[in-house]
Amino acid sequence: MKLLLKIWRQKNNDSKGKLVEYPISGIEGDMSFLEMLDVLNQELIEKGEEPVVFDHDCREGICGSCSLQINGEPHGPDRLITTCQLHMRKFNDGDTIVIEPFRATAFPVIKDLMIDRSAFDRIQQAGGYISVNTSGNTVDANAIPVEKDKADASFNAATCIGCGACVAACKNASAMLFTSAKVSQFALLPQGQVEAAERVQNMVRQMDLEGFGNCTNTGACEVECPKGISLENIARMNREYLTASARG
Asked: Residues in domain 4Fe-4S ferredoxin-type (predicted)?
């Protein structure tokens, strides 16, 4: 395939960026999107030009670091996949592909397509953990009964990889789906009840401090989430927050 790539180039968060056009050819349908970018970068390096900076790690749909806005969609035109799992057969010969970083105040651009998502880390650190007795009187977690439906719902929430697609898809750049997934995975388990009230209040407070917007109730976050995190988690987090606030 021959393609025209329009890629966002930006030196750092303090400089202005712009879309730069790069024609590319010889792209096979079985290539992943990131492999296509590797081909482009190899060509740029051979020409003595600076390669395009983009984030990636596992390339197996697990780490969430490969997040890109592709033709206006987080992770591109496919569903329930990350950018590294998107294959070029989803595009046609002669297509123009616009590639940008995720857009959010809380996700400042580091360079080109790479953004700083450490805001998610700080939300997690604010309450995304449970207390564990390490005094020598520990109880095997498997000895605590957990209803299967709650265990399944907790596991589904825990599949969130923190890629930020929910934020990029939301017109308010809301992190409600991410935060609610991290709240839910513990709120559903008996081990998570010790600091349940403190957890949800601290995580929501940190989310607001990071500059994320509020939920729009449009559901775009769930549609674009590569792991299919449900909007039910937002409803659960709201209930947890109201309950915690009522108790003082």
From this structure: 151-181
